[in-house]
Design a protein that fits this description.
GO terms for molecular function: hypoxanthine phosphoribosyltransferase activity; magnesium ion binding; nucleotide binding. Belongs to the purine/pyrimidine phosphoribosyltransferase family. Its EC number is 2.4.2.8. This is Hypoxanthine phosphoribosyltransferase. By secondary structure, the protein is of the alpha/beta class. The termini are close together. The protein has a single domain, classed as Rossmann fold (3-Layer(aba) Sandwich), CATH 3.40.50.2020. Helix 1 crosses helix 2. The mean pLDDT is about 90. Helix 3 links the parallel strand 6 and strand 7. The chain contains three helices and ten strands.
Length: about 180
């Protein structure tokens, strides 16, 4: 498949199908259920907008009571990171002594999640873990590691299943990389 991006034609190559994603979410949720149990409330902090689809599918498979919160940070323009992180929405109030699971779409350079984790630690939570649909280890510039990872990928720019290109293509039911045609 090909799509038009500005003045360039781009090839779309599916990396993870809808079925692949569904199966991996089942495995991740089983591990999270095992790690947290079903008694205590888990604060789910969804990083908008990219993690929204992943988080909604994941949370439906969790067995413990959850409180769902959202936060929005911005670091991308087009296909590249700006290097600047902006907290677009404030963090939820009163996270003291709470167990927090941050759900992220992708750990790329690690700059965004590093920034968010530093901000969250200021709220004195009981614990913070990160669940990311995708991880790009070779792109990491910060020493961060997600506790739960759906898939590791090479240094590609990806779209679909919540990941976007200038706000578009989040609705694709799969994850695909883009390459010039």
């Amino acid at each position: 498949m090909q799509i038009q991006v500005n003045d360039s034609l781009m090839n779309v190559n599916v990396l993870f199908s809808e079925a692949d994603i569904r199966e991996r979410i089942k495995q991740l949720s089983e591990q999270i259920n095992k790690d947290y149990g079903t008694e205590n409330t888990l604060i789910i902090l969804i990083v908008l907008h990219g993690a929204l689809l992943f988080a909604s599918d994941l949370v439906r498979n969790l067995g413990m009571p959850t409180e769902i919160e959202t936060v929005r940070i911005k670091s991308y323009e087009g296909t590249s990171s700006t290097g600047n992180i902006t907290l677009v929405t404030p963090l939820p109030k009163d996270l003291t002594d709470k167990q927090i699971l941050v759900i992220e779409d992708i750990v790329d350079t690690g700059r965004s999640i590093d920034f968010l984790l530093k901000e969250l630690r200021k709220t004195n939570p009981k614990s913070i873990k990160v669940c990311s649909l995708l991880d790009k280890p070779e792109a990491h510039e910060f020493p961060v590691k997600a506790d739960y990872v759906g898939f590791e990928i090479a240094k590609h720019f990806v779209i679909g299943y919540g990941l976007d290109l200038d706000g578009k293509y989040r609705n694709l039911p799969y994850v695909a990389d883009l390459k010039k045609a």
